[in-house]
């Protein structure tokens, strides 16, 4: 085998390894976030787990490192690998949010995500109304147009939805808020996708987005904050309805 061929083979193996590691992390992360493995649970030994999943111990170890980096598990010599309390989880990590909605999400966890949005996004809309420039408004308008053109039933429409919320956060000119854009975008994406599992969206939320845009474009901070508050509140009610609940239960703190 020539040197370039060897390099290509190694790269292919590395790519396969990363995909396997990602698949294992996705499976275990989904089980942890959905409650299959409750906080405090000591997982099976590395040998037993690798055999049960039919994967190598090396691939499992790498996947566990991914979960540990996201605050889901902690490994200690002799004590094994333990699922950490929810307060230790990086719930704003886009992967953790994806895992939360991969199966049947915990209603209290979903409410917690919406409560975060209800705190952050109306304030961000207010700042955006005060600080936006022409480019920010163009980004919001283009995203809104994509949502209308493609509808939220399509990947392109959902991408427009994420872009809309991202443009608002960027228009705040606040780096600490901009950092949240990936997390807010993931929360918007996965809740929208979840609401479409069994049927079409219960109502069209695009007009609610348009009201936020119009208030920001008018430079009306109070109206922008109120429009965003209504948008988030209605999205939470729609999600609760899809879960068969009238109201999502309040989040609780897991014991340490």
TrEMBL record:
Signal peptide: none annotated. Residues 1-20 are annotated as: Disordered. Gene3D superfamilies: GntR ligand-binding domain-like, Winged helix-like DNA-binding domain superfamily/Winged helix DNA-binding domain. Keywords: DNA-binding, Transcription, Transcription regulation. Pfam families: FCD, GntR. The keyword Transcription applies. Residues 18-86 form the HTH gntR-type domain. It comes from the Bacteria. This is FadR/GntR family transcriptional regulator.
